[in-house]
Structures are given as structure tokens and as C-alpha cells.
Amino acid sequence: MTDLVRPTPAPTGMDRRDFVKTLGGGVLVLVALPSIGVEPAAAQRRQYPTDVNAYLHIAQDGKVTLFSGKIEMGQGVETSLAQMAAEELGAPLSSFTVVMGDTASCPWDAGTWGSMTTRFFGPAVRAAAAQARLILTDLAAERLGVPRSALAVEDGVVYVARDRARHVSYGELARGQRITHTVDQKAVLRTARQFTVMGTSPKRLDGHEKVTGRAKYAGDIRRPGMLYARIVRPPAHGATPKSLDTSAAAAMPGVTVVNHDGLVAVLAADPETAAKALDAVKAEWNVPDPTVNAQTIYAHLVSAAPHGETVDAAGDLAAGRAAAAKTFDTTYYNAYVAHAPIEPHTSVADVRDGKATVWASTQSPFGTQPQVARALGIAPENVRVITPFVGGGFGGKSAGQQSVEAARLSQAVGKPVMVAWTRAEEFFYDTYRPAAVVKVASAVDGAGRITLWDYSVYAAGSRGSNVLYDIPNRRIRAFGQQSDTRGTESYHPFATGPWRAPGANTNRFAAEQQMDVMAAAAGVDPIEFRLRNTKDPRMLRVLRAAAEAYGWRPRAFPARTGHGRGVAFGEDVGTYVVHIADVTVDRSTGAVKVDRVVCAQDMGIVVNPDGAKMQTEGAITMGLGYALSEGLRFDGGDIKDANFDTYRFTRFSWVPPIEVVLVKNDDDPPQGGGEPGVINMGAVIANAIFDAIGARIYYLPMTPERVLEALRAT
Amino acid sequence: MANDPIQFTLNGKSVTLQTDPARLLLWVLRTDLELTGTKYGCGMGECGACTVLVDGQATRSCLTDLAAVRGKRVTTIEGLAEDGRPHPLQEAFDEHGGYQCGYCTSGMIMNAAGLLHAHPHPSRREIVEGMEGNLCRCGAHQRIVAAIESAATGTGRQP
User: Fold this and answer.
1) For chain A, N or C: smaller number of CB within 10 Å?
2) pLDDT, tens digit, for every residue of B62-96?
3) Is the Cβ–Cβ distance between A414 and A356 less than 8 Å?
4) Structural domains of chain A, with CATH
5) Would you say the pTM of this structure is higher than 0.90?
6) A81, A99 in Cβ contact below 8 A?
7) Chain A residues close to B101, C-beta within 8 Å
8) How near does any CA of chain A get to the CA of B87, in Å?
């Protein structure tokens, strides 16, 4: 049984070197990597580390500690990273503890997003572990008086292969030794054929803590003398204060009022008193007249989005139109969508003696560190961010506002302070998935081959707009990137930001529904139509795997029986993914019920098959929400949804049987796993609805009202 | 004005609190009693992250004032295990992967415990209906249902 106790973070004020010392003598492996292929958007926003990327520590007792600047928010990477290290090191998984997201002890990391943990941090971990194994076997060879080639490693013990009575454990080798070694990424990694830990599905390391309630999140941190803060919030984005009266709150016993540089808060020793004090604050605001709402936003986005960047172009669009038997011009729309993690943003900050410690619910501890430092006017190295378990992120916990608030308040009152957003604050300050518009003009010739693809996406960004079909005449333009729509310069009425596979949900909804539009018009089965228009071997394999798992029988025209099936393909973060869904549509109410989802995925080498399936099932389940019900209600900067009573997403009764097929591909390194499963959910359900009722829905979410509207139009 | 002490049984042990009876059970558990397994998610009974058992019934602690549990048996996730052995639901959630981020998990397990208390052998449909008011954003639903089914069909103890 794995040791399930999460390691205690190093006490405040220690630096990494001191912390490592407290672990006792051992082998410390530093990995210096050449600059690796980080996605350009991330590289632009953050500085990537220049030296050390990963640390492993092997103590005298054989216990291994793995340090990672990534955080655990449900993806299961605490387990999969340990698996990668265990595989390469040759130590049992049960000897591992993983320290994550602690700026004092973990290697720098930009943030946990973009399905980059396994793809980019994974190779660094594997390289470090492989090099550690090399060092340890070298030491063992000296100790046992045999050449290294005569040795074998098993479960953290080095044996003389032909005389297993002669052996020495990693723990014994590490005792009293302290070796610093620099390696490059070219250390020899084990191959998929050799794997004994990677490619298996051990129980997750975080399971026991999570099912017993012992797992700690930021809101579970308690510090001596800690105060709970509630902050005075405006009624709408863009509102400015008119008047403020905190006297009644200040008169309440045990309540402290802070009014500092626009941050007005009430603090008390318990959260209920703080909430009552907030109720006693009288604030009036000037609220600007709204200029856009949920109806007018689309026209606004098309006119306000920046000039279009051409992402991809080939051939001659006019020639494509000329060669066409049929041409299709379609516009697709999607609403703003909330992240809505069940854990709202929460941080505890303890600022004293010019230093700060922040326990944060964040996807970016190393991004929070300088933010807090700037806000406090201290050096980043005097800020330590510790990340307990994060209760869901989905891209929404990348900003760090609540940590800055907690730190400023702690600095003001000289005590530890918790800022735990309420659900209403969570909805108000969410960095929404942007509403977006996609315009597509496409055409097919008489043989069912695509001759034209002229694609323009407004406000969502280009991710997921890549065409993997063979289209000779094409142009893809992105009017605005997802990453440039944050902050006050934005053309959105409130903050937007990355949301699980940013851009891809919007783009696949448009592109894969457009594919279906063409297939139906050409009288070709939708899977056959896709197969006919690509030579990409990975796409062909994944389409066929999905069709086989589903039991697909080709059919060219919509069933129109109220029951339908749909298919959609996409590529995201290196993974190829095909979804097939069955739906039932109630023609009288417009309600859509998803009856079955089959998903085939080629994600390269799979580190943990069950973990990969959990992520994919989760993405599919989450995707049902943006497909069917999630669309923020707002009027200008006034966010109308404040809780789950009006903002509805996937519930138990919505979830169909989900089957995930992992298409074997040990030729490619591990690709992304957290996001691909979500990207096709709009299109696959829209295509299934079309099959069921012969009507198309061009808007996300596909609410009953929109389904009825589409039925009336047919 | 001093309040009358409030006595109730918490995870098998008697506790007596001298505090305002109008306070919400959720915050009393999380602050005064330092049992942080019970989570805040919405504050209006819409998500179920704060679910505990009161006399065996799944109850939203964010809507329950302290006066309402006077003299009753309150069980939180921390008190579900018996004699150091995890409850069959806890084992099943762990085994089936009925969690991801883990934040809604305590509430899911406690709600399921209440469900099994009322219906020891629920059908799949009864499980889905019984869990409908608990929200999970990570999308562990399919495995949560499987976990509850497996715990219900096992020889598990009931709370």
C-alpha cells in the first residue's frame, strides 16, 4: 500500500536547499534542459526557467520525494508523474511522495494548464529519474566490485544479476552521500516495451485523502490568529464607488475594517461574523449603462474584434468556389461559459517581517509569487506560495486575484488572512470562456471532396481551427486570440480567459458541424465523408476505431426519428480524438437527452490508461454542459448568474454511458490528456440532433428553446 | 446574553457548544470544530458539497442552523470510518475513481451514505435520482454511480 500521507510542506522561511537538507542525506539530481517546446502563447506570457527543471530526492530509508511545480486539481498527475519517475528510477511507486506547487521547494513552472504536465514536465522527470538510476548503479558497481553492466535494478535494490545474494539498496547507497549532478535530456529512457509502471493503472496516490476528507484545500488552512475577510464588491463590472459607509461594520465587536487603495474589506475571527459585517456596510455605486447583452454580443464581437490574422492559407479560394458542386455559408455562435469549479477561489496569506506565505487555490503558484510580491512591494523571493490540493480549475484559476487580496489584507492587519470567495464572487470574477462567432464558407465537388474552406473565428482564438482534412483551397483567420482578451483593454464586457482547451470548443463546434452539413448535402455517410477527405494516418485510425467501438453502420441521410447519432473529429494538444454520440430529442419540448458517447483517442504513449480515461470521461461529462445548458446571463458588466440555481450544468441524470477507447500508439511520446475529450462535444451533439430531427442548431448552448426554434424553421 | 449550551453527538462523541444557535452547522464544523472535510460550495443547498448526516439523513449543512441538530447525531466524512476501517463507500469511491479534484467528494459520499441508509439496495435509477442534487464539475459521475452501486451490493456496514 502506498504511503498516502501528503508530505508536510517545509516550514515558512526555509529555502529549497534548507528544505532538502531536512530530508536527510541523499542523491539530489538536477536536470538542466535545453529550451523545450513550450507552446508559444505560454512562452510569451511567462519566462521559462533557464536552469533546473526537476528535482528528485532519495533519502537513506529509500523514500523518494519528487518535486514538481505543477499542481494537482484532479487530473491525477501526482500519480502519473510519480509513475514516470518510478519507471525510470527503478524504485517502487510506494516509495514515492510528491511535493507539488510549493515555490520554496519545487522547480519553477509556468502553470498547470494546456495539458502540458505529461507532455513537457514528464520528459524532465523521466530524464532526472533515469540519470539518478545511472548514478546509483554507478555507486553500486563500486560498492559491489562489479562493472555496471553486471547489475540489475529491481524495486529500489541493485543486484548483481548472476548472484542476487549480492545487492545494495538505493537507500543504503544514498546514506551519507550527497551528490550533485547535472544531466541533459538525452539520458536513455526506457521504451514502452520495457515499462512496468508506466502504462499501468495503479490506484491514485491522492485517493485515500480525498475519500476520507483529509485532503487539504486552501480553505482548510488554519493559522494562529487568522482572520476571515469579506470584501466589498461592485454590483457590476465597470461600476465606480459613489459613497461608502463602514461605520456600522466597524462598530461590531471583533470586526476590523480595511480601506486601502480601493480594497475595502471587513475582517473577523470567523467567517459568519465577517459576512454579517459585510451586510452592515453601506456602499453606493455609479453603474455604467450596459452597452451589450447576451443578444447583441455577437454583432459587437464581430465589429470589435481585432483585425484577422491568417493562421493557415493554401491554394486559391476563387478556384475552390468555381470547382464546387455545392457551397455552404454558415455562421456559428457560442455563449460565455463559466469555469464554476466547486471550490471557489480561496487563499490564506500570512505577511510578516517583510515576507509572505500564501496558501493558494491556483493553477499557477509561480505566477502568483511575483503578483503578490508586486502588490506588497517586496521581492518575489520573499514570497512563498504553497499550493494545497486545488478543487478544480479548468483554466479558471490562472489569475491569482484572491491571493493578492489576501496578501494585501494580511499586510494591512498584521495577521494571517483568509479570502474565500463566495459562489457569487466566483461567478462575478470568473474569467469566462469568451462568447464567439465563427463564419465558414465551404464547398464540395460532385465526388464529395472538399474544394473550399474559408474560415473566420472571432474572439475565441485559433486553437482547434486547424484543418486536418485535405482541402486544396483554404484560409483560416483568427480575429482576436483568446490570450489577448483579458484585462481592461478587452472588447468583452468582463474578464475572459482560458477555459479547458481554449478556443477549441468553439472551433470544433463550427468546423465539425460544417463537415456534417457538407456530408449530408453530398449524400455521404458522415464518417465516410471524413475518411474520404483525409490521408492523415492517425485520423484514419481514430475514426475507424471509434466507428468500430460504436458499431457504426453507414447511412447517408438523417434518420429524423427523434433518435439520432453524430460524429465529430478533432486534434488538440497532440491528441487525435473522435466522438460519436446518440441523442433523443423530444419534439414537443425541445429537450435533448444524450444516450451514449463513444470516444476514441490516440494520445501517444499512455502513462496511466485508467487515469487517461478518467480525464476523458470527465471532459465529456463537462462538455455536456456547454453543449446543452451553459450560457452566462448578463447585461453589460452586470453578471446575472450568481449561483447554481440559475447557472445549470451537467447533473447525474444527464450523464450517458461513456466508453473511452485508447488507440494504441507507442511510437509517439505521451500527448495531452486533460483537454481533447471536451473539444468535440458541441459538434457531436449538434450532428446527432440533426440526425434525430433534421434541423441544425448553430448556437451553443443548444437549449430546448433553440431546438424548438430550429424545428419551426425546418 | 448567554446562549444555552447546545449538545449533540458528533461522529459518535458528545459535544457541547456555547454559541449562537442560529449559526450554520457548516461553519461551526469547519471553524469551531476544525472538521474541514465538509466543504462550502454554494451556500444555498444547490451543490451538496457540505452534505453531512443528521440522524442518518443526508443534510445540507450550509442550510442547517445549530439549533436544528440539538440532541441529534451528526456524522461528517471524518466520522464515517469505523474502528479505523474506511466505510465501504469510501473504499468504493477510491477503488472506482469516483473523484477527481476531490472537493465535492465528501459531500458525494455523505449524500450516498444517506441514500443507502434510506434504501440499502437502490436501483441505478434511484442512485441517479438520489445524487441529482450533488454537483461535480470534474465529471466523475459515471464512476460515482458505479462506486455507490458496488458499495450497495457489497456487504458494507451502514452508518
Assistant:
1) N
2) 999 999 999 999 999 999 998 889 999 999 999 99
3) no
4) 16-211 (3.30.365.10), 219-287+345-420 (3.30.365.10), 297-336+432-713 (3.30.365.10)
5) yes
6) no
7) 73-74, 341-343, 389-393
8) 9
